[in-house]
Amino acid sequence: MIKKLIILQQNLVWAIPISMSLGLIYGYLFDASNLRSLIIPITFVMIYPMMVTLNVRSIFKGHDMKLQVVTQIINFIMVPIVVFFLGKFFFAGASEKFGLWAVGLFLIGVLPASGMTISWTGFAKGNKEAAMKMLVFGLVLGSLAAPIYTKVFMGANVEVDMLHMFKQIAIFVFVPLFAGIFTQMFLRKRYGDADWEKRLKPKFPPFSALGVVMIAFVAISLKAKGIIAHPEDIVKILVPLVIFYLISYILLTLIGKFMFSREDAIAMVYGVVMRDLSIALAIAMTAFGKEGSTIALLIALAYVIQIQSAALYIKIVPKIFGPSAEETPKDFVADSVAR
Fold it and tell me: Fewest CB within 10 A of the end CB: N or C in the chain?
């Protein structure tokens, strides 16, 4: 089973669009409402493995304070402002769905740094230790800031129950986080650090990939009839998403080019553009009631753009930042892409 999951993990670039297409067919032909009960268990399948593989101890290593501060300023000041105004501009219609899509775009903007940050930073020969710190800091800060930011910025679009949202974040972030830390400590103590790193640790990320594919299927299934009735909605959603990622890559490339070394710049780029779509999707599907599936539609589509853009950007990294000390592989797979 692990081998099959690894194949799935290595092909998420294609697996997610296929899963969404199958969800569209299923949701159109059948009543998908019963799938809603699967959201919580699927979310744990998606998030817990990511937490098990976190190296929290890395945040106490190195001397890259400037890089970390600049990255989090971008994550929690610049990016939320960008997504807020993109939502205002592109989702200004009177229909309720426009306001909900704006909320989805904003959730992407306030939940930074997924496990993809580490994976893609590694593929591009960037600073993986710095990327790990960005992930941990972004995870904690984003979890605390998301309910407050969403209430302040998006309260006019949708009713935001901050306490309920905090509870959902605790369920989907902090419970798996502490469970993952204790799991890692137990396995390291029982089998040793070397066995953990080489044999046990690689077994967890493929399960996250399975969770991502499953949650994308469920999210699209729940909205399938509406999507097929209004296919133009996909275009309306994709346009601001593409613009958001394009702005992010251009801005971060310029900042990284002029402020940091090659390795640190690459870590910063992926530390910002790789938003935590898994947690954003989980929150959308659980914290906003029946409106959550509309919000989740935008986040599910963001998966496609995020992974495809990461793969495209890595090809031009040598042209932008120069070659790495070691030869950059021509062929790579998105190992741990959904952690």
Answer: N
Flag whether pLDDT at 46 surpasses 80.
no
CATH of the domain at 161: 1.20.1530.20
336, part of any domain: no
What CA–CA distances, in Å, run from 186 to 39, 46, 47, 189? Answer: 28, 21, 19, 5
Domain count, the chain: 1
Which residues have C-beta within 8 Å of that of residue 23, sequence separation ≥ 6? 32, 216, 217, 218, 219, 220, 221, 224
**Amino acid found at 314:** I
Q: Could you list the residue range(s) of the whole structural domain that residue 309 is in? A: 2-321
pLDDT score, position 61: 67
pLDDT at 173: 79
Instruction: Please check whether residue 333 lies inside any domain of the structure.
Output: no
Alpha-carbon distances of 300 from 70, 94, 166, 214, 261, rounded to whole Å: 28, 23, 22, 11, 33
**Would 330 be classed as within a structural domain?**
no
Apex 263 CA angle, 261 and 264, nearest 5: 65
Q: What is the pTM of this model?
A: 0.81
CA 225/CA 223 separation, integer angstroms: 6
